[in-house]
Write a structure and sequence with these properties.
With 189 residues, the chain is mainly beta. The protein contains 1 helix and 11 strands. It has one domain: Lipocalin (Beta Barrel), CATH 2.40.128.20. 10% of the residues lie in helices and 49% in strands. The protein has a 10-stranded antiparallel beta barrel.
């Protein structure tokens, strides 16, 4: 009877693993892209893994804060149908995002969370990969003076070696660009 129970448990374990074979595992900690996911889910493929990064934020109109070192990890989630990232910063700040591509709207939707501010509703951005290979996401946001605009996030210089990231306020036609945050990342795993 014990042998039969062991065999049944083993078969159930194999069935569960086969059903969720794109999830992160100890052998594959970043998961895998599900071939049934929208093809655009691969937009973040070069970022999957661990990067060592330098983060710098704006203090005021003429001053940038000291550089903060951080780890930025990207992995596939939801059985390879989405992407999650997590940042661990040396200054004690932690944050992350869940990224899903919606084929119906042909857009990325990114939901952000952070230890710096806990919100009952997650901030969200939407956007796409551009022709030049950047991934650009927007969220409506007024400037401090009340001017309408967007907070724009841009992943640029994306390669297997790393990427750059920028957070900037832009007016609707993007003729005014006010950078508030820059991150420079080198791939480690």
């Amino acid at each position: 009877m014990k042998k039969l129970n062991f065999i049944i448990l083993l078969l159930v374990s194999f069935a569960i693993h086969a059903q969720y074979k794109y999830e992160p595992t100890p052998a594959n900690p970043y998961g895998s892209l599900n071939p049934e996911a929208p093809p655009q889910t691969a937009d973040f493929a070069p970022l999957i893994g661990l990067c060592k990064c330098k983060s710098v934020t704006r203090v005021d109109q003429s001053t940038w804060a000291d550089t903060v070192m951080m780890d930025w990890t990207f992995k596939y989630i939801m059985n390879g149908m989405g992407v999650q990232d997590e940042t661990l910063k040396e200054d004690g700040g932690y944050s992350g995002s869940i990224r899903q591509y919606n084929a119906d709207s042909a857009r990325w939707y990114v939901h952000y969370y952070s230890t710096g501010f806990v919100s009952p509703t997650l901030s969200s951005w939407e956007g796409n990969k551009t022709e030049n290979g950047d991934i650009v996401l927007y969220r409506p946001q007024q400037a401090p003076n009340g001017m309408e605009g967007f907070y724009r996030l841009t992943f640029s210089d994306i390669s297997e070696k790393g990427f750059n990231w920028a957070g900037e306020w832009v007016n609707p036609d993007e003729t005014i660009v006010y950078p508030t945050w820059r991150i420079y990342c080198v791939k480690k795993e």
